[in-house]
């Protein structure tokens, strides 16, 4: 891979808009799609979403849990979906939400970020309960291979509120502290377009309450889940993210897939249109 993830993401935004199509093969969706609730169904679901998203959206985001639930057969299915996406101009975020001490994170880096791994993706989601410093090797590997990382900061689920708005000794919230760490990391790496280390900032939240200054995030990729099934509206992207809206990857999974396979392409086009008109 030649250029940095942030630069490739900026290029994709320019070509295909700011939508991320989540690939979450929930058992109920497999049934609705007329697919078996097993690894072969999850594979087919993922392949069809990749096919529909290619040329229509910037990014796809397979949720690893919905493949992992089938054990080794699920990982074989996921590898097939990732390989298919690699043959398109889509960027792929592996939603693996890995987080551990540094030496173990290095091994996760070998799984998701190494050029020789069948699970390699363009970017991965990580949790930093062990501190962003524990991800030093992981982030270095991402940069060295032109890949990216999205760090959970303010997640879309209501249960996270208590922990993520708790105050650090500095007085900043935990979420704002993670934002600061990521900003320092991107500044140290000197990215000139979008950085390669991004943040997860859910669309279901009042980010002001988390003490997050969106004006500082104009060149930090923001993965924004919560649209559709979790209640956020595409028409609210500009209001929710303000000055950082141009860096937001608007992410939706169930709401794109719920109309069945025949409706996916239209759902993607409609979502992309709504996001673009809100950001125009
Ligand atoms: O990292 C994520 O993508 C993520 C972070 C977050 O704060 N909230 C969140 O919902 N997600 C993921 O985004 C997807 C949301 O799916 P839908 O609610 O169906 O659009 C799921 O795969 C979640 O695991």
TrEMBL record:
Query: One short Pfam family name for this protein?
Result: OMPdecase
Q: What is its EC number?
A: 4.1.1.23
Q: Give the source's domain of life in one word.
A: Bacteria
Q: What class of enzyme is it?
A: lyase
Please name the InterPro entries in this protein's record.
Aldolase_TIM, OMPdecase_type-2, OMPdeCOase_dom, RibuloseP-bd_barrel
Which reactions fall under this protein's catalytic activity?
A: orotidine 5'-phosphate + H(+) = UMP + CO2
Q: Where is the Orotidine 5'-phosphate decarboxylase domain?
A: 18-268
Pathway assignment: Pyrimidine metabolism; UMP biosynthesis via de novo pathway; UMP from orotate: step 2/2
Q: Name one GO biological process term.
A: 'de novo' pyrimidine nucleobase biosynthetic process
Query: A Gene Ontology molecular-function term?
Result: orotidine-5'-phosphate decarboxylase activity
Q: Does the keyword Cytoplasm apply?
A: no
Record keywords, A-Z: Decarboxylase, Lyase, Pyrimidine biosynthesis
PANTHER family from the entry?
OROTIDINE 5'-PHOSPHATE DECARBOXYLASE (PTHR43375)
The entry assigns this protein to a family as follows:
Belongs to the OMP decarboxylase family. Type 2 subfamily.
What's the name of the protein? Answer: Orotidine-5'-phosphate decarboxylase
Q: Supply the source organism for this entry.
A: Frondihabitans australicus
